[in-house]
User: What shape does this take?
Amino acid sequence: MQNRVLKVLEFNKVKEQLLDHVSSSLGRELAENLLPSTDFDEVVKRQEETDEAAKILRIKSNIPLGGIFDIRPHIKRSVIGGMLSSHELMQVASTVHVSRQIKRFVEDFAEENSAIPYLLSYVEQIIVLAELEESIKKAIDDNGEVLDSASETLRHLRNQHRAKEGRVRERLESMIRSSSAQKMLSDAIVTIRNDRFVIPVKQEYRAHYGGIIHDQSSSGQTLFIEPQAIVELNNELQSIRIKEQQEIERILMMLSAQTAEYSSELEIIVRVLGNIDFMFAKARYGSKIKASKPLMNREGRISLVKARHPLIPIDEVVANDITLGKDFTAIVITGPNTGGKTVTIKTVGLCTIMAQSGLQIPALDGSEMAVFGAVHADIGDEQSIEQSLSTFSSHMVNIVDILKNVSFDSLVLFDELGAGTDPQEGAALAISILDEVNRRGARVIATTHYPELKAYGYNREGVVNASVEFDVETLSPTYRLLIGVPGRSNAFEISKRLGLDESVINTARSFVGTDTHQVENMIAALEESKRQAEKELEEAHDLLRNAEKLHKDMQQQMIQYYEKKDSLYEKATKEANAIIEKAKKESEWVIHDLRKMQQEKHAEIKEHELIEAQKRLTEAAPKELKNKQRVVKKKEKHVFHPGDEVKVLSFDQKGTLIDKIGEDSWQVQMGILKMKVEEKDLEFIKTPKLAETKVIASVKGKDFHVSPELDLRGERYENALLRVEKYIDDALLAGYPHVSIIHGKGTGALRQGVQEYLRNHRSVKHIRFGGQAEGGSGVTIAEFK
Assistant: This one.
């Protein structure tokens, strides 16, 4: 992509706005070097990365990017054995800390939300260097100062330093507090010169204290003297400072060497953090200009929905729908100057470059952009003073260069094509240039104010006329792009609105040829037709939206009706089953009493007779219909035709096929309702008299409900034995060879009662505790005869 084109389209200003959203010098460097890519896969990858960052910002609103530094020079110096300063080491630790935070943040987000493959692939490259971070932070604080805790030696030296410094200050303060000191000292303070403690002595008393003169005041009346009495103490203090500095340098060298050990890991961290910062800068910029992710293609199609120029404030710019490359490959925008034609082509060019750079574009969702091999532009009234070229010559130099390089995968933008020379010759040149660019298969948008080009779109295949709407009432352009309508001159109307005499205007009209009048009238009619069509289209959309809403409401009401119907049916079934269940329980008590009488009075009632009686009572009750069950017939393959009577399975309603509206969809009339139904949801009704499939009740044997185990944990003793008694009867009816009764371990009372009952039951052959895998002594296994 040529730098001149990027400059003409003001891509550098877009990058300047992007720089406001970076969080580090690493992201800034990538933003400053941003250029559009011509590789389709690379462009798609860039757009996906920006979209992932935008997705996180929509959900989390922020990401922890603060504290990233460009530590590449530090890494390089540590590798060659150099010593890093405490501040440089702190930057290394801060950058490592941020990498660890971002890695955890992205991985947590991926677990909780949707997939973010590109960000995950980045953070997977980050090696957590917790040991290096801890070593540096243990030795250096957030302000870059080496801590006492960095080593025991340093701690000891600093304690010595503080103690020795205290002694020096104490000696000096005793000197300045003496009665004689008041007249000999300029000020009763202790100060420091050349890292040594001194006192300010008047010039005439310099010999009284002896020692070393380190400085004097600007007037020369005060000397800063280190008294002889503390020279030795200052020497000792200076010695401690030297040892302290040596220990600090040893610590910094050790940490620098540790940094060098992780040089490759740190370089990866720097690269990854720079890319992530840049991704989120693009996403934040997209959010600021209310941009969206475009769908990219290789076929040269552009479809911009309500596109805006990104450098014009949102509350001032007019959004336009712009399409190119599908039904036509060239747009010729005609009309007078100051109508917004240049803004339109710049919007297309800038959106193209932004999309190929991985930036989201200032247009609504659903916009589509192509990846072009090159974008060529000749925009602006430039004059080349250095080459002594006129405006026309300057334009022609650019156009010659464009024609040398244009190809089928190029986007070409011409502003005021052919301007700056004789109108007839300029128009002829413009037509010839457009023909040549079209012949090479490029996509082209050109603006011109030559009336001769208004007929160009009607005479060339793949070319369409367009114009920017002008409001004669307000005497200003509306900046709305009208594709399919050529621009027309408004000179007469504007002059009339401004008060020019009618006779002058009529005289001017007489000088205009008949053909021109016809063309202008045709354009005016086209504009009016387009406005009317847009109005009718909007009204049709409103009617369609209302119809769809009504359709959805009716569908919802039908669904609610059938749900209520099913609910009432289920409620009635439950009530009936409750009555039957009550009768069953009463019958079970009767059987229980009979068995008790049999055991106590030895009545002549056989066990199998009791079981048979209970089976008859039980099978008399139908099961509860858990769901609405139907007898579903295997659907026969049928070729549907309009007029066929069908059943819509999802609504369980009969209808009539009206028309096929898709490969597998039909329009079906169900009463007063017409709706689109998929063919798989239709069942052909062979004869009108065929009864609708009815809901039936299925009665199943008791074995359908019997579990191979009974859980008694938490039951009271009496209730548990009653449940065991009923369960054994049910299990016998089900034909089980053995069952498991879970009673738990507890106090053992329930286990003893259960086993006692089972030992005395005539149908139980043998009982035993469960095995290791069966529950142990908390389970009793009963085997039947």
